[in-house]
Structure formats: C-alpha cells, structure tokens
Specification:
It contains 21 helices and 18 strands. It is α/β, with parallel strands linked by helices. Helix 8 crosses helix 11. The termini are far apart.
C-alpha cells in the first residue's frame, strides 16, 4: 500500500470517527485514501471552522477528531482553532499536507515551516519523513492527544512521501491506567482538610471528566463543602445541589467571591491558571491552598500550594472519599457558604418578570433559556460580552453541557462548535449563543450546517458593536473608541442559507420564539436586540458589593 493508505488505516485503528477540513492539492493522496475508509470526512467552508468542530468533538467525547488543511494558507487558517483546543485541554489531531520534500529546503510556492508554526500551540508536532514511521507516529500522536492533560497534536505529510510504498501495519492500541497519588501525600491532604473550619473547593476544567465529577459529587455529599466552578467546570456539580456555589471568573468581585474571602482553606481540583488567575482570588497571598490535579501546580507568586496532590484526579478524589468514610465523616462551619448560595440564587431570579420592549436584558434571556434547555442539552457560548453573562447566569446540571472557550478565548467558536455537538449528540438540543461580531466571523459554516441537516439553533445577541471591548474601555477610561458596525437583515440571511429565521424584540415573546426554533427541523437562527446597558450597571453593582462575614 502507499503511505497515505497506511496513515488512514492507522487512524481507523485508533478509532478516529471524523475529520473536518478543506483539502488541497498537497493532501490529494490522503483524501483518495480516506474516501473508502470508515472515517467520515466533513467538508467545511473554512479551516478555522474545521478546527473548532474537531475541538468540540474532543471536548464532548474525550477522543480526538481530525482537522485538515493543506500547506501554507490552509495550515495558517487552522491555527486559531488549534490553539483554542490546546489551551482548553481538548484532544485533537491536526493533519496538514506539505510540498514535496525535494523543495522544502528553498523558497517555493506556499512553502513555510508549518511544524515550527504549530509547535507552540500543540503538545507535539512532527513531519512524516519516511512511510515506515507512520504507525509509530500515529500511535504516539493519539496517545499524547488523549493523555491528561489532553490537547492538540500535529502530523504533516509531504505530498511525495504520501505516494511512497510501505508494508507496515498499524500498531495495536493499548490503554494504560494513569499514575495515581501516593498514600502519604493523600494522608497529608486529608489531615489538612480535617483541620479546616471553612474549606472551599474551586473546581476547574479537569472536573468535567465523568469519573472526576462523580467522585467530586460524592465528596460534597459526604462533607457539604461548597464548590465554586470556573467557566469551564460548569456542571461538575448539579446547580440544584446545596453545595453548588455557582461560578467564578469575572474580573470583578462577585457574590460567589465572598465564599473565598471567608474560607480558611481552598482546595483546587483540576484547575488551570488560565481559567481564573489566582491574583483575582488570592491577591493578598494569604490563602492556604491544596492543589489536586493531573499535573503539578504552575509557578505563580499568588499560587503557592501548601500541599500538591499529583495524579489521576478521579482516583485522588476516591482516595479522599475513602478516608472521609473511615473517619466517620467530617464537620465544618459552612453557614457563610449557604448565605452565598442563597444570595446568588436570588440574583439569578431578579429579572424573571421582565417585560421590556425593544431591548431584552441578558439576565432574562438566560433565565428563559435555562428553563427551555434540558439537563443534558448543550449550550455553546462564543466570545464577547454575552460570554460574561452566560458564565454568571447560565448554570448547569451535568458536565459538558455549557461549552465556553476560556483559555485562548477565540471569537467565531460557537457556530462550528455547535455543528460538531449536533453530530456527537443528535438527540439533544444544541444552542449556540453568539454576539453579532463573533457570529459573522464564521458565518460561512451556516452552509455546512444546512448541508449536514444538523439540528441546532443559534441565538445572536445584536448590539451593533464589539460590546465586551466597549465594556472594558468604559470601565477603565470612562469612554469608548469607535467599535460599532452594521449588520445584515438576519432573517433574510438565515433564509438565504436555507435556515429558519426569527427575530424577537420583546421580552414576553422570547421564550415562545426560542422554543419554536429549538423544535424546528434543521438549523434555526434567533436574533434579539440585547440591552447591554446592563453591562455597566453590573459593574456598578459589583463595585459597591461588600461581603458579610
């Protein structure tokens, strides 16, 4: 067989189900080999959309999908989505073509060092220089992509290498248990938790793995310790549980932050520093911290853990639960955490009876949306001012039911991500919420959604400008630069792509319109005028907040 056939066979052996992308001349042999395989190739309208689709597949399944581009501009178009996936810990395979190896040493059409470009935003990037190496390269790539913490890996296949013959066969897939923490360090962590009066958990991205979420919930049931979730950890504990203290991550002090102020011990679980920098919750460097994660703590002056428990997170939590049971349970003073939950629950209901016309408050949109979405349905947030409102006001019952980009934080993420989510979970309601700026960055994937007949809804919050930048400029400078732009006729745009289209201008009509869209066959677009006067009002209210102790 030729090398491109071998590469496809190796990917099949690894259980790769989807490759999203835009092919080119330099990966033509690979595309011919892929045509007769069990792997489904999804043709996208832009490579960036392909990378976001692969990212969401990885986040939802824990297994990598491929995103594909040709050399040069195809590869550079992929890189934003690849960086987003890698920083948000989603497994991904990045597959690019390259010019013939005989012309890579000199100036040549579309040739650039793609591997060097991808190296800073992947766990590993390599070129196939010999077809005999393909089985080892693919086995290593997939294993690295899946290994905690997951991320992106890149394989480049030059066009002449793809044609060479090979007698190799795929390597068998063997999965191994991850390293677990030592009993001695777990005993130390347990004794420190036992000595605390007001411990608190900050749950990060690692906690949305199913096994980790299960053990975390058992821990909280046994102890009552409250959990603050980062944006990416939503749903690690059920929003209706008394120990759910909702979400942290805004740049300003918020009601949930009061629980950190009162805590005498902070236990971070699966926490990445890019999710919510410790300077924002430990600025005085006076918090005792236990770090429990797959990897050692990042070095930072505001994050110097007293104890580090390194190893499989779910197993570490299981070990902790075993010690709690053997001790006959633990007792703490959690009255202040209960007050935080009560106050934030009231905050989430403040605008339940809104009946505004012409503009709709973000709080009302998200309250109605939460009531329509089932516990296992999936909401994806793009990046913009709406992301801050979703992070604060849209709470979850289950892990991976609110997908927010929070490390690399790229606009244009939600529409292509929703397409992948609908492929993984065709039985669930899929809703993407975008700003008018972010949605238009990858709107070409509307055609992909229609061609695949995906069942999804996109909600666009229209304010005619880059609202998050304006919010931050107003906070810092008291004024904004010119951030405004014009928009298309949204309903006409939807119809031109074969989508259903809806515009809703009044609060009272929102819930019915959204429910109609969610129940329609095929993709639907819902557009509403958002009342972003609430941005500065929230800033004012948070600036006046004090925490009762």
């Amino acid at each position: 067989m030729k090398a491109s056939d071998l590469l496809v066979q190796c990917l099949e052996t690894e259980g790769i189900e989807y490759i999203f992308g835009v092919p080119g001349e330099e990966n033509a042999d690979f595309m011919m080999s892929l045509e007769s395989s069990s792997i489904q190739f999804v043709l996208t309208r832009h490579e960036q959309g392909a990378a976001f689709m692969a990212e969401i597949y990885g986040r939802l399944t824990g297994n990598p999908a491929g995103c594909l581009g040709t050399l040069g501009p195809g590869a550079t178009n992929l890189i934003t989505g690849v960086a987003d996936s890698n920083m948000d810990r989603a497994p991904m395979l990045v597959l690019t073509g390259q010019g013939a190896s005989t012309r890579l040493h000199k100036e040549s059409h579309q040739v650039m060092d793609v591997v060097e470009m991808f190296s800073p935003v992947t766990k590993w990037a390599t070129t196939v220089w010999h077809p005999e190496n393909i089985p080892e390269i693919v086995r290593k790539a997939v294993r690295l992509a899946r290994t905690e913490k997951p991320g992106a890996v890149h394989i480049e296949l030059p066009e002449d290498i793809a044609k060479l013959p090979s007698n190799k066969t795929p390597l068998p897939v063997r999965k191994f248990r991850r390293p677990v923490p030592a009993d001695k360090i777990m005993d130390m962590a347990f004794e420190r938790i036992k000595a605390a009066r007001r411990p608190l958990i900050i749950a990060g991205n690692g906690c949305i793995r199913r096994r980790a979420s299960k053990q975390l919930r058992l821990l909280c049931e046994k102890t009552g310790i409250g959990v603050l979730s980062t944006f990416m950890a939503k749903g690690c504990v059920d929003m209706d549980s008394p120990y759910c203290l909702y979400t942290i991550g805004l740049g300003a002090k918020d009601i949930p932050s009061c629980a950190i102020d009162a805590a005498d011990l902070v236990i971070t679980l699966g926490y990445d520093m890019v999710e919510y920098h410790p300077k924002l919750w430990n600025s005085s460097d006076d918090k005792d911290v236990i770090h429990i994660d797959f990897l050692p703590a990042e070095i930072d002056e505001h994050y110097m853990p007293e104890i580090e428990v390194v190893g499989d997170l779910a197993h570490a939590l299981w070990m902790l639960n075993e010690r709690i049971d053997a001790n006959g349970g633990l007792e703490f003073d959690l009255s202040q955490q209960a007050a935080v939950r009560r106050d934030m629950t009231e905050e989430l209901q403040r605008h339940a009876e809104d009946d505004t016309e012409g503009f709709i408050r973000p709080q009302k949109v998200l309250l109605d949306t939460r009531q329509l979405m089932g516990p296992d349905d999936i909401l994806l947030s793009d990046v913009g001012a709406h992301k801050m409102w979703i992070a604060r006001h849209y709470q979850c019952h289950e892990p991976n039911t609110c997908l927010i980009p929070n490390g690399f934080c790229s606009m244009g993420f939600a529409l292509p991500g929703a397409i992948a989510a609908s492929l993984v979970h065709p039985d669930k309601r899929i809703l993407a919420i975008c700003g008018d700026g972010g949605f238009l960055m990858n709107m070409q994937e509307m055609e992909t959604a229609r061609r695949l007949n995906t069942q999804l809804t996109v909600m666009v919050w229209e304010d005619g400008g880059y609202g998050l930048i304006g919010w931050k400029q107003s906070n810092e400078f008291g004024r904004q630069t010119d951030l405004s732009f014009d928009n298309p006729d949204w309903v006409m745009l939807a119809h031109s792509f074969g989508w259903q289209g809806h515009r809703v201008n009044n609060s009272r009509d929102l819930k019915h319109t959204l429910e109609t869209a969610l129940n329609e066959s095929g993709p639907s677009l819902v557009v509403l005028p958002i009342d972003y006067r609430e941005n500065l009002e929230l800033t004012r209210r948070l600036g006046e907040m004090t925490c009762p102790m």
